[in-house]
Amino acid sequence: MTLRLTDEQTEALRRRAEKEGRSMQQIVVAAVEEYLARHTADEEVHRLGVEAVRRWKPVLDRLAQ
After folding, report:
1. Which of 18, 36, 46, 60 is 20 to 30 A off residue 52, Cα-Cα?
2. In which residue ranges of the chain is pLDDT below 70?
């Protein structure tokens, strides 16, 4: 995989890596892992919400009357 960043992004990443005492790769990998975890959690919340609506639809319909 090739990651193409602007010169400004590369320099900002380099500065951040130096401040944190980590490599640029470590920071990018951590950012990707955080992104994937966040979206996985969002998908799970959505799935649970759909399941809850399906499960409780009859009760919710009765309460709406």
Report:
1. 36
2. none
